[in-house]
């Protein structure tokens, strides 16, 4: 067996992208595993859950012993995902104001019809084809269209912001490789450009009647006074990227998993009411966010017999915790009827996924539409070609053969 | 033997949260016998926490707080009828209508009721309320809709404080009368109570502590106002009596069970004790009516009025009712409860009254976001958060592992001061409302009370 201190290198190695699960099993065997770069890898369920609620764990990289300013970019601060309370809470609450309870409790639910319509139109567009790429033809355009409408970003600008989004994601790819500095520089530039673009878009809505979130940010700041321009830029960039680069993986991972488990697919066709549970099971079994690389110990923390020193980077491998046999029975079995499925797919604690309600709804609607309308879908490549990132893990393409499209 | 336990006759007395969750668990665990549910209220099981919050604000109607069903329970429901006794020899529950329900195993989950205003004549005035049932909440919400000139809340425990908060949110004038020195001190101690008092004053509550209500005045059968022990008086159209809860155990007076004003005592497996302190094997108890030993709190018997405890204890009781000895489980969950009032979420884990000192571990009192940690003789026994509930799982772990008090690490949102202050837990006798967490075992520095039924 190879040493545990290179586990993270092996997990991030692109060669293992299609099936990182044996490495996660190895990680769980080792408990909390110190890596050769001084970071600590945690892959067991209970320890990850503990660290999510531990106030001695920071999400702010500035607290690292070896200062890490990735994510900083000229003119645009780090978004709330990389800040601690009370700053994190202040920014997150302002972002939540037009998105969820208590001020906009109906927002996500009210998008049901619209999302179903977008999904329906995308599937209509597949008529007459016998081969599709699920990613390009459906799983990517669906959440992009949804997040564009929600935020108030013109859909036709997608080619512009897609390039920026890819660069930003590459920037926080923790794979140790030849030129991380160059990747981070490109990522910073992309964040700045995307921030400027979204900031101006929001500014153009000032004083205008509009239902979208960018308009709400400038027109309804709430009692706390609202975002400064740089804060608004940082928040909008986060929401736009997180709003689609994760859901695309949720939808694609779901389809891939169901096609690998025909009995589960049959079950869902017969019992559509199982869909919410099935989506939760995908979030456990093949979570779109595999690991969280940005936590830091604020003080020496003893966990599972290991002392994580103050300032050390902590990497929480959610996808590994989700397969921990000490928490889930038969963890490697995909079971869309699984009871007691409190997975780590959306994290937990103060930073638990901001967009989870929307992601769940999109996943449920997308899968329901695909299952009932695609005739005889078959995988043409298994495993498919994966995207580069070990963090936001999912297929880059998912070529399928289909016999037709039902009405 | 195990198969026998999966069949037979089970009666559950009490058809609220604990009763319902127990019934569902019995069926989940494979009980195929006859199940009878007895409930004094006519309504099917409903949820009580919203009654003092969303219902009083007019956001949800009282009839709309029905508890979601986890599964079908296939029970015979006897609602709107009170149980009047248990015959321990013949093994049957006697109902007010004379009916007798024989059982092989019995679960007692009769909970509590609101402590009434002690002067019956004053309590009967139109405009005087208590708040425990959906019916109470519906009637009170309707009266609040009508725009009373002033509401008097008697007792500043959690329920009283939530009622006052709802009234202020509706823009109504509110006077709160509390016999103790501050709101919430029964459950959270005086140090926290000082914070709660400032909060109420900042929200425009006319808060009067250290006083009792000596009279509720009326004219033509309607409430007109109240007089206080300090000689002052107010005019009010509504008075809500929030003096805590009374445990529904009187019906067990002749049952031979260890039932009294503090509840029905049981072992860690929810098996009731008889009056000699001998554990029974076929009578179980769960929810607010139970008194149970907890190893984290020196095995003293705890009486809780917590939603989460009712669920957890009901599940353990039901499991133990249909499983043989070696498979039985203890009820060990750490007590926890929450409240929302005056725009804040307050959540507690552990037993704050089991403490001598308290310290702010995170956050700031001034900014109304904090975690306060309670300690007893150098170990952590409770934590209370204000708008910071998501950290409490961590503190629960510290309680479970008897971590040293005070905590000395710096985390997210470090406090200004790390100096513990006395938690200032009052003797329950001085409170006008009951604490929601009470230790009812023997402590050398507390006097024990002997209570005799009917005497």
From TrEMBL, chain A:
UniProt entry tagged with the keyword Metal-binding: yes
Region feature (Disordered): 56-75
Keyword Metal-binding found: yes
A Pfam match: p450
Alphabetized Gene3D superfamilies for the sequence: Cytochrome P450 (1.10.630.10)
InterPro entries given in the database record: Cyt_P450, Cyt_P450_B, Cyt_P450_CS, Cyt_P450_sf
Single GO term (MF): heme binding
Keywords: Heme, Iron, Metal-binding, Monooxygenase, Oxidoreductase
Bias (Basic and acidic residues): 56-67
Domain of life: Bacteria
UniProt family annotation: Belongs to the cytochrome P450 family.
Name the record gives this protein: Cytochrome P450
Native source organism of the sequence: Kitasatospora kifunensis
UniProtKB/TrEMBL annotation, chain B:
Source lineage: Bacteria, Bacillati, Actinomycetota, Actinomycetes, Kitasatosporales
Cofactor(s) this protein cannot do without: FAD
GO molecular function annotations of the record: oxidoreductase activity, acting on NAD(P)H
Organism from which the protein derives: Kitasatospora kifunensis (Streptomyces kifunensis)
Membrane-crossing residue ranges in chain numbering: none
Annotated PANTHER family: APOPTOSIS-INDUCING FACTOR 1, RIESKE DOMAIN-CONTAINING PROTEIN-RELATED
InterPro entries in UniProt: FAD-oxidoreductase/Apoptosis, FAD/NAD-bd_sf, FAD/NAD-binding_dom, FAD/NAD-linked_Rdtase_dimer_sf, Reductase_C
Ranges where the FAD/NAD(P)-binding domain occurs: 9-314
Any GO CC annotation of this UniProt entry: cytoplasm
Keyword Flavoprotein: yes
Keyword annotations from UniProtKB, A to Z: FAD, Flavoprotein, Oxidoreductase
Listed Pfam families: Pyr_redox_2, Reductase_C
Domain of life, source organism: Bacteria
Domain Reductase C-terminal: 337-407
Protein's UniProt name: NADPH-dependent 2,4-dienoyl-CoA reductase/sulfur reductase-like enzyme
